[in-house]
Amino acid sequence: RQGSELVGWARGRWTYEGIDLNHNFADLNTALWDAEDNNLVPHEFPNHYIPIPEYYTLTNATVAPETRAVIAWMQRVPFVLSANLHGGELVVTYPFDMTRTYWKAQELTPTPDDGVFRWLATVYATANLAMASGERRPCHYDDFARLGNIINGANWHTVPGSMNDFSYLHTNCFEITVELSCDKFPHASELPQEWENNKESLLLFMEQVHRGIKGVVQDSDTDRGIPDAIISVDGINHDVRT
């Protein structure tokens, strides 16, 4: 009700239980990178569908019921494309969100599918009326326009336990974060313009689900589909499953 003018960036970020949902997913990055450093990937440690650590599944773990519900949803429905919507800045970020050097606040940390993620982010940013405007001005201190209004999440600020990284490492889903508006809490009168700014971007982004290779993996003798077949692409150290 106060609008952005009178509230800080953290307002509305934590749940009633005091959990920041933006950092609440299991950190699968550290386990993967440790395994890579020890040359265990992918023969002894997977490069995709990384299992959730046991400590995270305990009933007394600091995991919000909202987070558990979203994870159960992701495990039940085989999503391949997703975006989560934030406010307070005008930029599209893509994984990895967590820096590989654990003590660094910012570090370029691309995924093996960096080209795809950069494309997905660019599709949204170039169709967003506010981002693409010739009168575009920085929201705060960062001039994202000179970067095409996209950035690797970890190269902006590290976010351990992000939904983007979790989606990429635990499921087949490629997910980005869209910072929709400089105004984190737009007034009701401003919402129609915010919708116009983002409508075409949302539609174009959803259409990207049709890009890439599609098909059915079948048994050559019976023609029956093979579930959970692992698909590897040369040069990309991140497999997907049927």
From TrEMBL:
Q: In the record, what lineage is assigned to the organism producing the protein?
A: Eukaryota, Metazoa, Chordata, Craniata, Vertebrata
Q: Give the GO biological process terms.
A: proteolysis
Q: What is the name of this protein?
A: CPXM1 carboxypeptidase
Source taxon at top rank: Eukaryota
Record GO terms (molecular function): metallocarboxypeptidase activity; zinc ion binding
Give the annotated active site: 179 (proton donor/acceptor)
First and last residue of the signal peptide? none
- Coiled coil stretches, renumbered: none
What's the family? Belongs to the peptidase M14 family.
Pfam family of this protein, just one?
A: Peptidase_M14
List keywords of the entry alphabetically: Carboxypeptidase, Hydrolase, Metal-binding, Metalloprotease, Protease, Zinc
**Secreted as UniProt keyword:** no
Which cofactors go with this protein? Zn(2+)
Asked whether the UniProt record includes Lipid metabolism among its keywords, one would answer: no
Query: What range(s) does the Peptidase M14 domain occupy?
Result: 1-209
User: Which InterPro entries does the protein's record reference?
Assistant: CARBOXYPEPT_ZN_2 (IPR057247), Peptidase_M14 (IPR000834), Peptidase_M14_domain (IPR050753)
Question: GO CC annotation: what is one?
Answer: extracellular space
Write down the species.
Grallaria varia (variegated antpitta)
